[in-house]
Design brief:
By secondary structure, the protein is an alpha+beta fold. It has helices at about 30-40, 85-90, 110-120, 125-160, 165-195, 200-205, 210-270, 285-305, and strands at about 1-10, 10-15, 20-25, 60, 70-80, 90-95, 100-105.
């Protein structure tokens, strides 16, 4: 879907296809993509992976187009819909901007542009403002998403100290999977943002040191969070493994004790079953009962002794 906007004097209003300087393209309609490629002679591969979570963040100059020295800038946004899989939450956002036109490509479920206009319309004067504030909002989304993930990590840490049930192990695997996606996405994205923030022309036109500082601060904050949380998940995974090994050790101690309780009476019965002479009680009418009684008594004493031992240590 094409949405046309006109930026003028700190105002952004919806416009028509005849009078606009900001074009927002949402969705994956092949006909719309083809129209955009043909109209501006954009590279054929520009939309490949544009809706995939594995899309590569990048900053590059586009050549041989009908636009005036266009620059392509791609980031990956994080949706706030926490019920979705991480692949569905990662939404590539692409900006193609020149001095007189901005083209933005987002997924059909993205709310980034709508929220950007609602929150920062009065702060936007140039295309660089849109790019910078979008970058700021994207990193804010990552920070919020990581804060929600911290709650899951805390719950897993508590569960690892109490249980080794399959459900908790599955939750751990899912959380680690999400963290892998976020870690690689942020590391890849940081290089692109750093390159943009190092461009003197971009910074001169933006002319907003406070905004640049906020972007870099959120960038570092998000990266530190994902690094710490991934290490925490590795620690929790190790704790689950150690707890399972410990429980297995306790079980083996219990089984060994049970085997010992059975083995002692068996030993006594075995000794009296030797087919040789001289065994006490051989000619006694109640000899068998005495042997059984002795075996049971020794077995009970062994069980009492072992039951008083603490196998949890």
């Amino acid at each position: 879907m094409f949405q046309y906007y006109k930026m003028d004097d700190r105002k952004i209003r919806e416009s028509s296809g005849e009078d606009y300087n900001w074009l927002v393209v949402s969705g994956t309609d092949p006909e719309e993509q083809r129209h955009l490629l043909d109209k501006y002679q954009l590279p054929e591969d520009i939309f490949i992976g544009a809706n995939e979570p594995e899309e590569v963040s990048r900053l590059e100059y586009l050549r041989n187009t009908k636009l005036n020295h266009p620059i392509l800038y791609t980031l990956i946004d994080l949706s706030e819909v926490t019920q979705d899989r991480i692949e569905d939450r990662l939404e590539p956002v692409t900006f193609i901007y020149t001095k007189d036109l901005l083209i933005t490509y987002v997924s059909h479920q993205s709310t980034l542009i709508k929220r950007l206009i609602e929150k920062h319309e009065q702060d936007i004067q140039r295309y660089e403002d849109i790019v910078a504030y979008s970058t700021l909002m994207i990193y804010t989304h990552y920070i919020k998403g990581l804060q929600e993930m911290k709650k899951q990590i805390d719950a897993l840490d508590e569960a690892a100290r109490k249980t080794t049930e399959n459900n908790e192990l599955f939750n751990l695997a899912d959380t680690e999977r999400d963290m892998v996606y976020l870690d690689h996405t942020l590391r890849d994205q940081n290089h692109t943002v750093d390159r943009l923030m190092d461009r003197k022309e971009f910074l001169d036109r933006l002319d907003n040191e406070a905004l640049v500082y906020d972007i870099k601060l959120r960038q570092k904050f998000a990266m530190k969070m994902v690094t710490i949380y991934r290490d925490l998940l590795e620690t929790i995974g190790g704790l689950f493994s150690d707890m399972m090994d410990n429980n297995l050790n306790h079980l083996m101690k219990y089984l060994d004790s049970a085997a010992l309780v059975v083995a002692v009476p068996s030993l006594i019965a075995g000794l009296w079953g030797i087919n040789t002479g001289g065994l006490p009680g051989k000619d006694n009418a109640i000899g068998t009962i005495i042997v059984f009684g002795l075996a049971i008594l020794v077995g009970i004493l062994t069980a009492i002794y072992l039951s008083r031992k603490d196998f949890s240590k």
